[in-house]
Specification:
single chain, alpha/beta, Rossmann fold, eight-stranded mixed β-sheet, two-stranded parallel sheet
């Protein structure tokens, strides 16, 4: 179970596995994932063959089910992570966490407690930190506190662009630990997007955030291949990758990546089926 002493993680609301991949790259053994949608579940199972992907609603399972239907068994769970959908927010005189539309958040808390996870990471939209929605976030924190968990009270919204990702994506991350465990800490920003008009970063200690061009400029031009009108892959020659893209393509080793090695054909362009656009559509995009 604990080969190479990797800590064990469980992904709830796993989707295709974005957070699973991040935790795996950070050195975790993502041993179980729960995803309600069968298409997303199938994709997760393909992307993480060593992980047990459970295609069920979190409302219908408990810790015993997750442990019994994965290789976790009786082993400790180090972290439960995920981003529960929450559509209902605080109204005057009503607790938002009791809103049926927010029941999935309740189940996230329940499964963290039921699995006796040492830590949890709850990810969600930045909007939960704004206005009256903060009442709902406070209720989530209170639920964790009432069930034996401490939460890092100075919760933060993290922007992916500040950590070397070519995407301006702001998300709330709520971190907590079972009482008796030290509280986790938020990561320190490593990158800064180039300031408009300045031409270079205003902070000399931070690296420049890579751009979308840095990530994609080595890809072949999909419009050059008629085959992509009938299928979503084609064999092609890629251009020279940028410093950012080279580890993604597997052409150089990323020593900070602790994910399980995967074999793939680096000479195949995938997920690139073309769409025939009308001239009007093209003018709109231009």
């Amino acid at each position: 179970m604990r080969q190479k002493c990797r800590p064990v993680g469980v992904d709830l609301f796993a989707g295709a596995g974005g957070m699973s991949l991040g935790f795996e790259q950070a050195g975790f053994d993502v041993a179980a994932a729960v995803e309600y949608d069968p298409i997303h579940g199938a994709i997760h199972e393909f992307n993480f063959p060593a992980c047990t992907t459970i295609c069920r609603s979190v409302a219908d399972i408990d810790a015993r089910y997750i442990r019994g239907n994965s290789r976790i068994g009786d082993a400790p769970v180090d972290v439960v992570f995920g981003g529960a959908p929450c559509q209902g927010f605080s109204m005057i005189g009503k607790r938002a966490i009791d809103d049926p539309r927010n029941s999935l958040v309740n189940h996230f808390v329940r499964l963290v407690v039921d699995l006796r996870a040492n830590y949890f990471v709850f990810e969600n939209v930045r909007g939960l930190t704004i206005g009256e929605h903060k009442n709902f976030l406070r209720e989530i924190i209170e639920e964790f506190n009432a069930n034996g968990y401490r939460v890092v009270e100075e919760y933060r919204v993290l922007n992916a662009a500040h950590f070397g990702v070519p995407q301006n994506r702001q998300r709330l991350f709520l971190l907590g630990a079972r009482k008796g465990r030290p509280l986790p800490k938020y990561p320190v920003e490593t990158h800064e997007p180039e300031s408009k008009g300045k031409g270079r970063s205003s902070n000399l200690f931070l690296r420049k955030t890579p751009t979308v061009l840095d990530a994609l400029r080595d890809l072949p031009e999909a419009d050059d291949f008629e085959e992509l009108l009938e299928r979503d892959w084609v064999r092609s020659r890629f251009k020279a990758a940028s410093t950012y893209a080279a580890p993604l393509r597997g052409s150089v080793e990323d020593k900070a990546d602790f994910s399980v090695p995967r074999s793939f054909d680096s000479g195949v362009l995938t997920s690139s089926m073309r769409t025939v656009h009308t001239e009007l559509s093209k003018k709109t995009v231009r």
